[in-house]
Amino acid sequence: MKIWTSEHTFQHPWETVAKAAWQKYPNPLNPSVTGIDVVDRHVDQNGILQTKRVLSTSWGLPAWVTSLVGMDKDCYAYEKSEVDPKKKTLTLKTKNLTFCNFLTIDEFLIYSPHPEDKTRTHLKQEAIVKVKGVPLSSYMEARVTDTISKNANKGRQAMEWVIDHLKNECKDLRLEAQKCMDKMVAQGASKATS
């Protein structure tokens, strides 16, 4: 078993980062996530938004590997998330469904306001990797953990991309609303002088 942990600070408030996390896929920095299906979503008796999703991913394995291990092109993972708006936490727990007979990857992410600066967001990330029933399991666990580490950086870059994308959408909407207001004011002024 290998355990990988990481922490990161986003220079954005929790609300912004939490919104971006929901809209993270698809993005050009991590095209491996090919689909997301919401299985269940509800607000529980404590006001916590509970969501269960299935993620479809393409690992980009060569055809000979997929035929050797007998798998489809797509791989699947199950994600359970909780948003606690009072505590301002977004917790994600993801577990692979594909290869789960010999490889388990349990990933945990917690987004919360930075303890020293509430205008920033703290991310704590952990992955537990277990390979069983195959030769060189320790080596394989190390390789999977290395891949997780590399992909974590891509994930953070993707979050920044989504945040920028959301800010630009808001800016575009503001500009469009301002144009409409200016047009209405101009039309009103034109009618008043006629």
Automatic annotation (TrEMBL):
One family name in Pfam for this protein: PRELI
The keyword Coiled coil is assigned to this record: yes
InterPro entries: PRELI/MSF1_dom, Slowmo/Ups
Coiled coil location: 156-183
Keywords of this entry: Coiled coil
Organism domain of life: Eukaryota
Domain PRELI/MSF1: from-to ranges: 1-171
GO cellular component: mitochondrial intermembrane space
Cited PANTHER family: MSF1/PX19 RELATED
Name of the protein described by the UniProt record: PRELI/MSF1 domain-containing protein
Organism: Patella caerulea
